[in-house]
Amino acid sequence: MLQIKKAKTFILILLASVIPSIFFMNCSGSGFEAVDVFSGDPLVGMAWHLHNTGQAVYAAKPGTAGMDMNLLKTFAQGITGAGIKVMISDTGLEDQHEDLHDNFAYGAGSKDYNKSFPYTSMVSAPQDSTDNHGTSVAGILAGIAGNGKGSRGVASKASVISSNLISASVTTQTNAMVIDQLSGDFDISNMSWGTTQNLVDDDPNGDHLLYEAKMKDMILSMRNGKGPIYVKSGGNDFMVSCYGGDPSIPCIGSSNFDRDNTNPYTILVAALDADGASASYSSPGSNLWISSFGGEHGSDSPAMVTTDRMGCLLGESISSSKSTVRFELGKFENSHCNYTVTFNGTSSAAPTISGAVALLLEVNPALTWRDVKFILAKTARSGTNTKSMGHPLAKKMPAGYVWEQGWITNGAGFKFHNWYGFGVIDVDAAVALARSYKPHLGTYHETLWFSSGTGDLNLAIPDNSATGAKHDLLISSEIVKVEAVRIKVKVTHSAISELALELTSPSGTKSILVNAVNSLTNQADFTGGEVFLSNAFYGETSAGTWSLRVVDAQAGQTGILNSWSINFVGGM
Amino acid sequence: MNYRWVLLLSLAVTVAVFFYSQEQQVVKVQSSDARGLKQKQSQFDTSSISKVPPNDNRPLNQAKSLGPAENLKSSQNLFFQDNSKKMNIATDLRRPQNARSALLPKSESELQPSELWENGDWQIWKGVRVLGSHDLNEEQQDPRRQLGSFGNKIFIQDSEYINNEHQFASAFPMPVYNKKRNRMGLVFGVFTIHLHHQQDLENVLAENDLNLKAEISSINTYYVEVKNQPFDLVSKMGQLRNDPRIEQVALEVVSQVHAAN
């Protein structure tokens, strides 16, 4: 009898504990609800960049579980980029797409560069059969969630507008349009385009200076002075045709060779594959800011799932596709060819970051463009591999010379790598920091260009030697907490592709702004009009001695360092 | 039976469960379609070439197997460890992403000085016609007639064709070459004008037969094109230089194409 009574008591206690717990488990509210954040989108299981479980999608080899944007908490909290407007500067995008339409902001600032200035248009849809790119970019950024269609974007409720700067229908793509697309009514601009990274532009007409001037105007005026956030793809030219040579012979490009990438107002994005390694194509550069996911080619290793122009006659996914990935031919879940699983490139990585920024701005609309950059850098997941690297094409370097550094830690404690920027986006951490963020970066200031003087330094650059030609500049005025550093160099050398440009800060941080033996073949001299940017010194002081070293890493041609100058942007 | 103990115990268990569930952040991922993928994968022939991304038409080799990863301590450190994979791909002599030759004249005989550039920086590339990719006739579509492409423009070898700076239309851009910098460019007939302080832009545009293309009004600088075409590029340049309201004029040369990444 006593045993039965004890048993009944025990069962009573158990029930009394369990039942209230069930109610807590099912309470609505952030943090403790079992949320089905990925329900209602039939292809979202392929979106490994959102949640990498090691899915192969249609590739021969799966990705590695855990290599993703780390955003599940953010999604579970219902943060979607609602209320944030993103300009997708691209080929135009299919606003009628079933997975984009409801997010398209009609008549809210799209631009059609086939029209006359100011190019304003209700929509900016694809106008050429090859204008597929923008639709795919848009899906990664703002594909609608939970609508029973496709996958979902990083910012599934962001509003999007579009411009068609790189549409094949725009027959006269001039610098004027490249500058014009910087302006408008948007919070974020995604620019998944660039120029070929085997040429440096010394800007004889000043078009790039005008580009930067326009961008600066916009960051000072748009969003009530907080500035729009310009997000740009870092480039797919890790290997690119050597300039002026046999196009089948590769050279190593650099994001720093695209002059549009050397201003401090742009967040440059590198791409990773589904294993968390640098994607095979992703351009290196000291001007990169952050890495995100772009995937590989879809048959070997997973690429990105996203929207494609609707129907099996348009887009990348078409019934006559030569792809070995049958999804692209309109098979399986893609019977209407409205989606693609082979989109990749830094073109893919950039909209994941644009989407992430939209999430940040939703939780804290007061963030300025500098705050956003800080949050992304501060919360990025960096690496530990400090091992230096030799030339990827096995070009022999001078004895003792390091072609590329591994991860460095700068004087302010930020880790940086020329292949990854500050590291890979961590959305949950960035959103958490955005929520609690207190402005602290100080008043924005751009210094004058401090130069080595009006005279010619006439410093010989030792041929094929790690020693290089070295010159120091002491900075003792306009001191800032560095957010970016830029240099210009004047060098007389008949083969500038042999040269490396290295800068060392007063804190002892070394950044390689131009790697030796690169794609700038058949080009002579740096005229002093080219600009190279490094983000490696973020957070350090500009005060003290900055040291430039120009290294000639191949035998044969010799040269001279004539002069150089340096400029800083940051907080005072 | 002491029911206070029952109550306390049930409260303790409830609190424990609450914190446990918050810790777990349980998220269910839609997996009904993903389940089918593993079966479907085996049907694919992965030995042949994959589809390439836009603007890259060359076939790709399969990626090599992963090189050794270093310092694998936690999932956090798995990022960025395997730089050897990218290096392996590079040494596999994979063709470049953008495998196209630079468009350059072969000799100085193909060049002609122009009054547009007094310092001789740029010269007109003779015997080359530049057309839109959709504007080619049958003969021009023959790749043997084509020197290369520049964005959606095709360069056609045509020894009879004269790029006339005195009879210019934007629809037929003029190819030019900078010997010092070893690069080509295209002239679309767009000028940048920098106005003196407080000049009326609308009047300048109207009186010079110009349309606005872009503005950086904070520094009184504007991109403009000529309304009525064809026109004389040299005369127009002179007209704009002589306009007292205009401080500086430059003829835009587009030397790089902005294309999808």
Properties at a glance:
heterodimer; A: 572 residues; alpha+beta; Rossmann fold; Jelly Rolls; 2 domains; 7-stranded antiparallel beta sheet; 6-stranded parallel beta sheet; 8 helices; 21% strand; B: 261 residues; 4-stranded antiparallel beta sheet; 5 helices; 12 strands; 22% strand
Low-confidence stretches of chain A: 24-35
The CATH architecture name of the largest domain in chain A reads 3-Layer(aba) Sandwich
According to CATH, the fold-level topology of the largest domain in chain A is Rossmann fold
Helix content of chain B: 10-25%
Structural overview:
The complex is a heterodimer of chains A (572) and B (261). Helix content of chain A is 17%, strand content 21%. In chain A, the strands form seven sheets. In chain A, strands 16, 17, 18, 20, 23, 24 and 26 form a seven-stranded antiparallel sheet that branches. A six-stranded parallel sheet of chain A has the order 4-1-5-7-10-11, covered by helices on one side. A four-stranded antiparallel sheet of chain A has the order 19-25-21-22, with no helix packed on it. Chain A is α+β, with helices and mostly antiparallel strands and 572 residues long. Chain B is built from five helices and twelve strands. Chain B has a four-stranded antiparallel sheet, with no helix packed on it. Chain B has a four-stranded antiparallel sheet with strand order 9-10-8-11, with helices on one face. A three-stranded antiparallel sheet of chain B has the order 3-5-4, with no helix packed on it. Chain B has helices at 3-24, 34-41, 83-91, 201-207, 233-242; strands spanning 111-112, 122-125, 128-132, 146-150, 153-157, 174-178, 183-187, 190-195, 210-216, 221-226, 246-251, 259-260. At the A-B interface, helix 1, helix 2, helix 4, strand 6 and helix 5 of A face helix 1, helix 2, helix 3, strand 9 and strand 12 of B. Strand 6 of chain A pairs antiparallel with strand 12 (259-260) of chain B, so a sheet runs across the interface.
